[in-house]
Design brief:
With 261 residues, this protein is an alpha/beta fold. It has two domains: 141 residues, NAD(P)-binding Rossmann-like Domain (Rossmann fold); 110 residues, Dihydrodipicolinate Reductase, domain 2, CATH 3.30.360.10. The strands form two sheets. Strands 3-4-2-1-5-6-7-13 form an eight-stranded mixed β-sheet, sandwiched between helices. It has a five-stranded mixed β-sheet with strand order 9-10-8-11-12. The longest helix has 13 residues.
């Protein structure tokens, strides 16, 4: 039995993880943590607690799932590592430097950690298809759409997609003319790491969206569009469950759900 804690339990994703834990054989919800509504009953004898450190120790947690905020996620992960509690991280906004530091902490503390920018199987397939298409097209851009309460931009999914694409194509601006932005930011943000990529990423924040992404490829005389829509947050739960079970059984650092599918 996996003893699971949910951090950010009052959030929309946190609430879905709580429901998943309650309804999944082999997982026991032992702890729910949030800054809001401390003391509120979540399920049976599980109540919202406000202090991560004490909650992890009291409940002898095996795995924590964290869907909190970009401003606190790095510090939260440090707490998990110090307590040698394995973690599944769904909060985006971590920098490449922070991810590298987390990998090092995971190794030094011998404590598994899975960071996944997206837990939707369809979104993972979209990223895989985009990486494959990158071998054959000279130009590509990414448009990602999220609800207007998402604080980080661009999304972790779009950054992960660009990383995978850049492995197969060094320059997605082949043949472009010299551009002039009459309004700064009109061309979006440029993903270009160590001279590789040159992928424009455009972030849309608007009520009505949950999460969607479109990768557009172009070459002479043709355009290919790979599009994924998230209708509701339930679609992430099969991926969260997979990550929880995987990190419980293993003790590795993993960045991206595609690495455990």
């Amino acid at each position: 039995m996996i003893k699971l804690a949910v951090v950010g339990a009052n959030g929309k994703m946190g609430q879905e993880v709580v429901k998943m834990a309650i309804n999944t054989e082999g997982i026991e919800l032992v702890c729910a943590i949030d800054k809001l509504n401390v003391g509120q009953n979540v399920y049976n004898d599980v109540y919202i607690e406000g202090d991560i450190n004490s909650a992890l120790k009291i409940h002898n947690v095996d795995v924590v799932v964290d869907f909190t905020q970009p401003s606190v996620i790095f510090d939260n992960i440090k707490i998990y590592m110090e307590n040698k509690v394995k973690s599944v991280i769904g909060t985006t906004g971590l920098t490449e430097s922070q991810i590298a530091q987390i990998e090092e902490m995971s190794k030094n503390n011998n404590t598994g950690c899975i960071i996944a920018p997206n837990f939707s199987i369809g979104a993972i397939l979209m990223m895989k298809f985009a990486a494959e298409a990158s071998k054959y097209f000279s130009n590509a851009e990414i448009i990602e759409y999220h609800h207007n309460q998402k604080k980080d931009a661009p999304s972790g999914t779009s950054i992960k997609t660009a990383q995978l694409m850049a492995k197969n194509n060094d320059n997605f601006k082949a043949g472009n003319c010299d551009e002039i932005e009459t309004i700064k930011g009109a061309r979006g943000g440029n993903y270009n790491i160590d001279g590789k990529g040159n992928i424009q990423i455009h972030a849309v924040r608007m009520p009505g969206f949950v999460a969607s992404q479109q990768v557009i490829f172009g070459s002479d005389g043709q355009v290919l569009k790979i599009h994924h829509d998230t209708i509701n947050r339930e679609c992430y739960m099969s991926g969260v469950k997979l990550a929880v079970e995987n990190v419980f059984e293993n003790n590795n650092f993993v960045y991206g759900l595609e690495n455990i599918l």
